[in-house]
Amino acid sequence: MSNSLSFFENFEYKNNQLHCENVAFSDLAQKFATPLFVYSRGVLENNFNEFNQVLKNHPAGNNALLCYAVKANGNLAILDLFSQLGAGFDIVSGGELARVMAAGGDASKVVFSGVGKSESDIRAALEANIHCFNVESEAELYRLNEIAKKHGKVAPISFRVNPNVDPKTHPYISTGLKKNKFGVAYDNALDLYKTAAKLEFIKIVGIDCHIGSQLLDVSPCVEAFEKILLLVEKINAAGINIAHIDIGGGLGIRYQRDEVAPKVTDYLNPILDLLQKYNQKNGTKITLILEPGRRMVGNAGALLMNVEYTKLGETKNFVVVDAAMNDLMRPALYDAWHEILPVKTDSQAEEKIYDVVGPICETGDFIGKDRKFASQIQSGDLLAAMSAGAYGMSMSSNYNARVRVAEVLVSGDKVQLIRERETIQSLFANEKRLDH
Ligand SMILES: *Cc1c(COP(=O)(O)O)cnc(C)c1O
What we know:
This protein is of the alpha/beta class. The chain is built from twelve helices and 21 strands. It binds pyridoxal-5'-phosphate. Pyridoxal-5'-phosphate binds next to α10.
């Protein structure tokens, strides 16, 4: 059985019991209750090291800055871990900047993305002296210049350029097409750089692109990078220095058994080769910035859930679990597929097909459809939705007055509670009854 799970590194069956590293999921359920997000520290470290090794082993990559995209999973313990491993961070809000700082992250390794940076977000990032603002519009450039002036700062910037390549992913997470709201148009970028170069409180440091998420084909990334290099050549020719190229995030992971996720080498080496060639030809020392999110945390996490009821119907069978779309929104939002594993296996058991659904009053509230489980599955059994480390907890909500669940980090046979389960009282603590 453990072989067929080999893509969920560090999550395997031992004595027919699903484990995260050396800890049985059933023990975690007993100690911390369900639903529960369970992360493997080993997988988080391996994911970071996989990127780091490829970068370190390439002459154009050994001074690269790996900025973990906080929005994939912003738990302080996870940020702390990546920070200790040497990562910087890609943030999209002032709130994420505060998380990074609270986790001991280094602001000088932070890049700030997003189409709607508010005045207070910008002020906080200037005060923290972040590495770079990834500017997404001309209007943002002027706002940044004004705020920097007011606070006696110079804002380091790159433009997020939209290279107009099709990332071949889900439309909701594709961001690099002309019709998307992100970035500045490729054809306007050179003029914008010339404009920015004249602004007193702006310092141009780089160029940036991010074409989408859950990319399983590396060719659009390489294509985008080639287009960016052509632009860099023109920007350089205009006398403007580009110190870094930020290639964004987006590298996909394997959710389904028949998916193949590209290796980090196969993604980064063609890009690093192109960069090295460019630097040699032009006598430049442009460095790389990366913003991986999902690939760093996705397969490091699982959502542990308890079976509340089973319902056998004429056309469908249901397993009703205690986790729901508010805990793991990806199936409802993107029709995303997560492997769902029984915590205890019985290879002899006869199987039936079930939809795994939550208690929320929405038909979209499902974790998985048409899954096979033992026909004697019953209340009190445990299931685990795999690959839930990215965009799981970070997208969760309190819909239906449900508390957000607890999170634990497993390392060998040690377990640390890294987020306590919310209390019901906390859900309405900021609310008031009528004052008359
Ligand atoms: C979401 C996002 C990322 C991370 O994307 P992943 O697919 O999780 O790697 C990186 N950069 C930007 C600008 C993003 O919006």
